[in-house]
C-alpha cells in the first residue's frame, strides 16, 4: 500500500484497507463492513513539529520513522486541519521576530477542533518565567489562540490549557473539553461517524452499559442516551478530570464514572477485591446487558476477555485490527459478530480503526 499523500488515490487505498479487514475477520463469519470515509485533505485536528535550524533560522520539520537526523522541511501540511495550516507561518514568523518567544524553541504542537478553536504549545530547551508571558499574550491575541509554554518541569498557561470541541451525533450536539497533552481522536469528522455508528449499533435499551477505557467520555456521552444507566471506567487522572467536566457540561446525569483499570474492574465485579474508589457505589444496582470496550493497541488482556464474555452484547472499537482478530479467537467461542465497520481515521497510512458488535449465541 502506498503511504504517500495522494488524494486522487484515496478510494484505492481505502479499498485496500477494507480488503485487509475482511481478510482478518473472514474466519469469524463477519458481515461486510460498513465503511466510513475521511475527508481526503485537512482531516487531522492535531499535529506536532520539531523545529530544524538552518543558518540560524527555524523551519517546521518532520522525520521519517526511525530517522531523527534527516529532516523534511515543510511550510504546510495538507493532512492537517485548515486552521493548523493558517497558523503555521504567522506563528513561526512571530517567534523569529521576538527572541523571547523564539530562543531555544524546539517544538510546536497544535490542537484544533471542528468547532474552530485552536491551542498551541511552544516547547523550549530553556527555563520559562514571567518574561515570556507578555509577548506570548500578544501573540495569542493576534492569532486568536490559546497558548501554552513548556520547558523542563514547567508549564505556563496564559488563559486555559484546553479547547472545547462540538460533535454532532444522532441529532444532538455534544461538547467536549480537550486538554493539552491528553488523548483525543485526531480525525474529528471520522470520530463523528464512529460515535454515530456506535449509537445506532446498540439501539435503545432498558438495561445498563459497562464501559471500559472511557477516556474523556468521547463515546460515553452519546451512548448514555441509549441505556438506563452507564458505569464508565478510566485509569488516567487527566482523562478522568476531563470526563467529569464533559459529563457536567452535557448534563449526563445517568453516568457513574469510576477511576479503575480494566483488571481492577474485573476484580470488583467478580468480588475478588473491594476498592475504596467504589465507596458509595452499589454494583448490585446495575443490570449490565452490554459492555463497551475501546482498548489500547495491545487489545484486551485475558482477564478482561473473560469478563466481557459474560455479557450478552459486546461493542468493541479497535485501533489495531490484528489484536482485535486475536481477541475474537476467544470471543467467537461465546459470541457472533452481527455488525462490523471500518473507520478511516488515518488516510494514507496502514493504520485503521474498526468496530464490531458481538452478540451471545
Automatic annotation (TrEMBL):
EC number of the protein: 2.1.1.35
The family database entries (Pfam families) matched by this protein are listed as:
tRNA_U5-meth_tr
Q: Which Gene3D superfamilies match?
A: 2.40.50.1070, Vaccinia Virus protein VP39 (3.40.50.150)
Reaction equation(s) it catalyzes: uridine(341) in tmRNA + S-adenosyl-L-methionine = 5-methyluridine(341) in tmRNA + S-adenosyl-L-homocysteine + H(+); uridine(54) in tRNA + S-adenosyl-L-methionine = 5-methyluridine(54) in tRNA + S-adenosyl-L-homocysteine + H(+)
What InterPro entries does its record include? MeTrfase_TrmA_AS, MeTrfase_TrmA_CS, SAM-dependent_MTases_sf, TrmA_MeTrfase, U5_MeTrfase_fam
Q: Name one GO molecular function term.
A: tRNA (uracil(54)-C5)-methyltransferase activity, S-adenosyl methionine-dependent
Entry annotation: catalytic residues: 319, 353
- Membrane-spanning ranges: none
Its BP terms in the Gene Ontology are: methylation
Q: Which domain of life is it from?
A: Bacteria
Q: Which residues bind S-adenosyl-L-methionine?
A: 185, 213, 218, 234, 294
Which keywords annotate this record? Methyltransferase, S-adenosyl-L-methionine, Transferase, tRNA processing
Role according to the record: Dual-specificity methyltransferase that catalyzes the formation of 5-methyluridine at position 54 (m5U54) in all tRNAs, and that of position 341 (m5U341) in tmRNA (transfer-mRNA).
Q: Can you tell me which family this protein belongs to?
A: Belongs to the class I-like SAM-binding methyltransferase superfamily. RNA M5U methyltransferase family. TrmA subfamily.
Name this protein carries in UniProt: tRNA/tmRNA (uracil-C(5))-methyltransferase
Provenance organism: Pseudomonas neustonica
Q: Which gene encodes it?
A: trmA
